[in-house]
Please model this.
Amino acid sequence: MIKLKNLVKKYGQNIAVDNINFNVNEGEFFGLLGPNGAGKSTTINSICGLLKIEQGEITIDGIDIKKNPLEAKKRIGLVPQELAIFDELTASENIEFFGKLAGLRGNLLKERINEALEFVGLSHKAKTTPHDFSGGMKRRLNIACAIVHHPKIIILDEPTVGIDPQSRHHILDSVKQLNKLGSTVIYTSHYMEEVEAICDQIAIIDHGRLIAEGTKEELKKLVLEEEKILIEALDVNFNTVDEIKLLNTIKDVKLDENQLKIVTSDSQHILQDILFVLSKNQVRIKGIQIIEPDLETVFLALTGRNLRD
Ligand SMILES: Nc1ncnc2c1ncn2[C@@H]1O[C@H](COP(=O)(O)OP(=O)(O)OP(=O)(O)O)[C@@H](O)[C@H]1O
Ligand SMILES: [Mg+2]
Model:
């Protein structure tokens, strides 16, 4: 549905997007994850035809956006990072404006406005100007404006930054629903928990470069130190620690006061054997916790930095 080939975007000497390639398949929920300044918005804005493409190619649904920008843009609904709504128009008039831009008229336009308002949970605010809306409500209105023309592709640039938890859940649920109904979604964020929870395919970018891409399971496999098992236990001695070290897939075992920290590549299959060793040595177990690597760990392993620095 979306193909980026060798995309480069420079601002003077600053290379904001440095030779990025990726494909987004039809119906996919694609996450673009990266820290501030990574080049997420520049990539998105290039896909939407808002920035001039100097180097590289982008095709949308088989259409080259340099050759036929209008046709390509029709297929996209963008929820930009900076809100794009008019404070002096009512919620309904805002959506009408964007619907008309996309070529909708008459009864169909009216139906779509009501549908979009309902979808984002703002039907009761149809006749109100967004002046006094909360940040989350403004963002939801912005989503309604982006989906009024039923685009095949919905692109959201950090839609949940700085908004209340209720609106955040509403936005995440509604975007998931749009995807289930068949829309292809590109979702950018620097919140790795969000991307991890909702995206099928994830591209991690940093300093304008794509540093890894795959499903969350594939990305986590990039991290060598895979899982940690933390066991709170009494009466652990160093013989027990040594015995655990000899088990399969165990990479490291540390005893820190009453806590055993075990690093393994396969906690599922080895947990039973660990418990057997502990029980044989009459260790009293108070609690067990398994910690899987997250995308933060992946980012740290690939770049040596934290995502949220
Ligand atoms: N209009 C512009 N003029 C000059 N430099 C820009 C412009 N827009 C972005 N940049 C630079 O390009 C780089 C990438 O910025 P971009 O906004 O794409 O990052 P981002 O990943 O969206 O970050 P954020 O999470 O803060 O939104 C940054 O170094 C930024 O300073
Ligand atoms: Mg951005």
About this structure: The pocket of magnesium ion (ligand 2) is lined by residues 40-41, 81, 157-158 (CB under 6 Å). Residues 119 and 307 are 32 Å apart (CA to CA). The chain has a mean pLDDT of 92. The longest strand covers residues 14-24.
